[in-house]
Amino acid sequence: MRFSVSFFWTILFLLGSGSPSHAQGKTKPNIIIIFMDDMGYGDPECYGGAPYKTPAINKLAAEGMRFTNFYAAQATCSASRAGLLTGCYPNRIGIHGALMPWASLALNPAEETIASTLKKVGYRTGMVGKWHLGAKAPFLPVHYGFDEFLGLPYSNDMWPVGYDGRPVTDTADRKSKYPPLPLLEGDRPVRYIKTLEDQGTLTSTYTERACDFIKRNKKDPFFLYLAHSMVHVPIAASPRFLGKSGTGLFGDVMMEVDWSVNEIMKTLKAQGIDRNTLVIFTSDNGPWLTFGDHAGNTAGLREGKGSSWEGGQREPCIVRWPGTVPAGTVCNNLAATIDLLPTLARLAGAPLPKNKIDGVDIASLWFAEAGADPRDELAYYYGRNNLEAVRKGSWKLVLPHRRQTYKTYMPGKNGFPGGYAEAPVPLALYDLAHDPGETQDVQKANPEVVKALMAVAGKYRSSLGDDLTKTPCAECREPGQIPGAQK
Questions:
Q1: Domain 379-481, CATH among 3.30.1120.10, 3.40.190.10, 3.20.20.70, 3.40.1280.10
Q2: pLDDT tier at 18 (50, 70, 90 boundaries)?
Q3: Which of 49, 51, 62, 80 is the most exposed, fewest CB within 10 Å of its CB?
Q4: Which among 132, 143, 228, 401 is annotated as catalytic?
Q5: β-bridge mates for residue 460, sequence order
C-alpha cells in the first residue's frame, strides 16, 4: 500500500512527535530563498527566456517543481518584500510602493518575519542583498530576526547617478536628491556603490557571502534569504560576464545570475547538505518594461512592473528539495509569496505569528498530494490600498481603476527609460486558463462569474478595505515610523 506524506505525518503525531518528521532535530530542512528583482515571468530559459542560456536555473527546475501560477504579493519593491517576509498582504501591515531612502515608513518591528519565526526553533538566519523595508537602524534586517546582513538598504537605482553612469550635479534632476548608495554590513556601511562598475560587483559579492554563510552554518539548520539586486536597472555584470552571452547586457546579467545559482548549488553539494536543503527561486515583481533592452520579458503576459495585470505580479517560481519535492514536475495551482511563511513554519515545526496573516500552507502542492488546492483565490492590491482585481480559480475580475501602461510610448534603450502613461482600466473578466495575456473581456458571456467574483471583492473590502471605493480597512496594522524622516 502507498502512504501519502500527510498520512505519514499523522502517524508520527499519534506516536507523540507532535510535528512533521522534517522538523525533528537535525532533520529540519535548511531553507534558501533566492529572490530576484524585476525578473519577469519569461526571463529564465525554462520559462521561455531567450536567446541567452540559464542552465543552472533550468537544472533547478528539472530537479524540482516549476510553478506556472505563482504570484508576488504586489507588483512593486517594498510592498512585495513585506508580503514575502510576513505572509501578509502588504496593505494589511501598512507597506506600499517602493520606499524612498528618506521615507518615514518602515516594516513595523512588531511584525514577525520568516527569519524571526524560524529563529524560534533554532535556525541560524542570514540575509544577503536588497532589503527595502527601512533605510536606517533600527529598521534594518538584523532587527527583524536575521543574525547577519550584507547588502543594500533599498533599490540599486536610488543613487545620485544618471542613466549615463555619471554623477548627477544638476540639482533640478530628481536623482540629485538621493544620498550615496551604501553597502551595509549589519547596520553600518562598509563601502559605497558609486559607479556602474561598482554595480557590476553586486551579484558576485552577494554570492560569495551567501556561500560563506552556508559553509559557516552547515551543522545547524539555517535560513538564507538571498535577495539579488539584479535584474533591476541599472543592470550591470562583472567583467568575466560582460559580452559573454552574445545577446547584450541583459543576457550577460542573466548569465551571471545563473552562475550565482550554480555556485549556491555547488556549495550545498560540497558541504554534504544538498538533499536536506529546500531552495526556492522567485522574483519580487515583473519587468520594468520602460527600460526596453535593459528589461526582461513576461512571456506574453500583459504589461509589467507597477500594474496588477499578470505581467506585473505573476512570477517564475521553482521549488527544489530532493527526495521530498518530486523532480521534473510542474504545478499549475494558484500560489503566492505570502504562502511561504506558513509553509516554512510548518516544515520547521515553528509556531505561526500571533498576528493574523494572509498566507496559506502550500506544502501539499510541493508534495504533489492528490487533489491539493490550498489557495483558490487571490486579491490584487496596489498603491496604498487599491483593490484592482480578484482571482478565483482561473477567473480574474479586473475592477475599475487607473493604472500606468507601457503601451503608449516606445521603450527606452541602453539603460535610458522610455515613457509610460496612466490610463483608465474598466471592469473586465478574463479566463486566465485560456487567455493568460488578458486580451478578451468575457464578462457579458459570464454574468454569474462576475457576480461571484464581486462577492469575493466585497469580502476583501470588508476586511482589508479599498481606497477605490473609499472603504476603510478594518484589519490593517500600522507600519513602523522612522523618527525624523520626511513624510
A1: 3.30.1120.10
A2: very low
A3: 51
A4: 132
A5: none
